[in-house]
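Long-time lurker. I teach an intro course on protein structure, and each term I like to show students one example going from raw sequence to a predicted 3D structure in C-alpha cell notation. This year I'd like something fresh instead of my usual example. Would anyone be willing to generate the C-alpha cells for the chain below so I can use it in lecture? Attribution to the forum is fine with me.
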Amino acid sequence: MREGTAKEIKFESIDNLFGIPNESKQHVTTMIPLESLYPYAQHPFRVLDDAKMDELVESIRTNGILEPALVRPRTLGGYEIVSGHRRKRACEKAGLEEIPVIIRELTDDESAILMVDSNNQREELLYSEKAWAYRIKYEALKHQGKKFSENSAEQLGKENNKSGRQIKRYIRLTYLQEDLLDLVDQKKIAFRAAEKLSFLTETEQNILLEAILEHKVYPNIDMAEKLKQMSGAVSIEGIEEVLLGRKLKSRATSIPVKNIRKYFSEESSAEEIERKILELLEKWRQEEGYAEF
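-- Reply from a regular --
Happy to contribute to a lecture. Here you go:
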C-alpha cells in the first residue's frame, strides 16, 4: 500500500495536547499503513500485550482510533512514531492495516520531549521507564538550554511534582546494568539503594549481580552505601561480606612448597613444576567429566 493514502479526517486541537504551536485549531490527519511506521529510536516505554492492551484493542474495534498518532518523516523512508506506539500495536492486534496520524517535521530534541511527555501521562510506569524518560528529556532540554532560564533537572522536577535532586536520582538508574535495573522494576532492590549501586563500574555491577543470584540476597540502602564506598576495589569476597554480613574465607588456595617439591627432582624449575601440575589437573578434570569454567 502507498504511504499517505485514503481520506483525510479533521481532529480538533491536537497541537494543544502535544504543545506544538499552530495557527489553525484544526488538523488534517492522514491514514498511513502500519508497515510504514517505525518505533521511536530511544523509546523507553514497554509496549505489553497485557489486559490494558486487550482493552485498547476492543475499544478500537468498537469506536475506532479516537486520537491519531503523532509521527515524523524518516530520512530512510516511512515515519517514526513520536506518540502512538501502543495504538499501533493495538491496531495490529485488531487486524487493521492503517492508522490515522498527524505528520510533523520535528527536530530530535522536539520529538524526544514530545515522546516523553505523551507517555509520562500513563499510570504505573516502571522505574526503568521513568529513569530513561527523564534522562532523554533532560538531555533534550540541556541541548535547548538557552531557551530556559532554570536548571533542566529543576524544570523537569516541577513538571513531574519532584525535586531536581529526585530527577537526578532517577537518571542515575540508567547507569545500572540491565539485569540490576530489572530487579529495581521488580522491587527487589529499593530505589535509593539502586541509585547508590549505579556508581559501581560495569564490571563491579556484574560481580554484584552474580553474588545476588547465588545467595538470593538483595542489597538494602546501607549495603549499597558500603558497596559505593568500595567502588574501585570491589571483589566478589568483599561483595559477599557486605551482602551476608560476615567475613568469608578467601577463595584463594595455597599449598606449601615442601608438599609439592617432594614430587619433583631438585633440578626441576618452578615453571616446569607449574606446567606439570596444570597438565595433571587438566587430565583429572577430563577424566572426572567436570565442565571447564
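Some talking points for your students: The chain is about 50% helix and 10% strand. The CA atoms of residues 33 and 98 lie 4 Å apart.
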